[in-house]
Amino acid sequence: AQKIPHAIATVAPYEEEVLDREGRWYRLQIRPYTTDDKRVDGAVLSVVDIDVLKRAIGAAEWARDYAKATIEALQVPLVVFNEQLDIVSASAAFEENYGVRREALAGQSIHDVLGGVLDTPPLRSALNRLRDRHESFQRLELKCELPRLGRRFLSVSGHSMLLPDRGLLMLLSFEDITERRRGEEACRRLA
């Protein structure tokens, strides 16, 4: 109630989001009304129902925070990248497993990560199908030489998602299956 006289006295519009007793959201706008001779002669109030928008924004923020928390909680190395195959983000597990700072990854091409060892024809083909046809893939095995780690066997899976505000984002997960492959090779040699 005191906001109307304040808007009139300062000749400044006022706006805020308010919650009614039933829990619905509204945008309250107070605009000083000036006459043709530049005299303030009251105020114009408008109340716009923004409940659906406010709840949609809340749901979107919750979903974003949930997805981010899920990615960080997983022990599986994950990388998120865009249509241009540039990295948007990486999980803490990726940083820990491969010794690459997440901040240094942002904007890099997925093919340049880890000294380019992931830039193989099978992965390139799978990523192109993921980007162009949204074909997810599971357990694509790569044999590569990783910096600091040497020869490793990786199982890579990919999934795409189309977001209205961000466009196409793709997610890669990496599982190091080196010990499993070495165990299988040892069993074959013994047989």
In short:
With 191 residues, the chain is of the alpha+beta class. The protein has helices at 3-10, 51-73, 92-98, 102-105, 121-133, 178-190, and strands at 14-19, 25-34, 40-49, 78-82, 87-90, 137-146, 150-163, 167-176.
Our count of helices gives: 6
Rg from C-alpha positions?
Answer: 27 Å
What is the overall shape?
elongated
Report the mean per-residue pLDDT as an integer. 86
Name the structural class: alpha+beta
Spatially, the strands of the biggest sheet line up as 5-4-8-7-6
**Tally of strands:** 8
Task: Give the helix proportion (percent range).
Answer: 25-40%
In N-to-C order, the SSE pattern is HEEEHEEHHHEEEH
Characterise the protein shown here.
This protein is an alpha+beta fold and 191 residues long. The protein contains six helices and eight strands. It has helices at residues 3-10, 51-73, 92-98, 102-105, 121-133, 178-190, and strands at residues 14-19, 25-34, 40-49, 78-82, 87-90, 137-146, 150-163, 167-176. Strands 5-4-8-7-6 form a five-stranded antiparallel β-sheet, sandwiched between helices. The longest helix is centred in the first third of the chain and has 23 residues, at 51-73. The chain is elongated, with a radius of gyration of 27 Å.
